[in-house]
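Chapter review: from sequence to fold.
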Amino acid sequence: MLRHFGVIACVVLGVQCNTATSQIPGEENEPTPEYVDANFGEDDAARMAAGFSDRVPSERGGRNLVGMTSAADLVVRGLVLAQEYHYDVQDVPSTHTTFLVSEELKGNHAATQVTLVQPGGPAKDNADKIMMSSHSHYFNVGEEEVLFLETDPENTSPFQRVSVMSRYRVFKGKLYSDDGRSVILFPLQNGDDYRIAHGVDRNPDSRFKHIQIGTRRLGKTFDQVDLTDPQVRRAAAGKSRVEKAVREAVDVAAFVNLVKKFGGRGQ
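The token string follows.
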């Protein structure tokens, strides 16, 4: 699985390369989203309806928005402006992704652009060979993102000067996880904080299924559950009832205003 290795090599050979893993970030042996989906029952539905999201795949173990904002050095909303590939003296690739910052939600970054440097990319002399890192995030030019960033300008390694703590993707005014799950906010403490959770279904838009690296378009695949299994059908029925109330992804404007508030920029 990608998360167990620092770097892997991927050879495209003219066909799509499946890069996704069914394991979500978190502790070892943490249930995959597919396992959670398949075992989502009526008890879980009741908990979600009551506002308890501990059974929903959530951002970094269910961290709250106040804590996430406080931990980040810089939070920005921006458009992926460009993606370039650079090579060291041994021709090892790194990916430089530049974001045009439309809003700075927290921090003091005078420039209108932020460049994220990550290990990996196409081979210098062969576009069919792609090196990927389990710690890297993959972006597509022209898409909008909300990024919680950690900065370390004194670090001599370019890969550590700016690193992604949390990433959310903007699509049609709504907020989604990296793999297209709706981002849901559950209010806590009378609205003074919010728990972030992910919906159980993925948005079907192609942007959540593909990664563009160099000249190659790689396709993600996700594990499928057996819909003929009675237990899965019962879980799906319970999940469907809850989704009528909470399936809608949060509006990016509402999310941005909350981050500004918690980051000291709001009213």
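Two observations follow directly from the output. Residues 230-246 form the longest helix (17 residues). Helices lie at 33-38, 42-49, 65-71, 230-246, 252-262.
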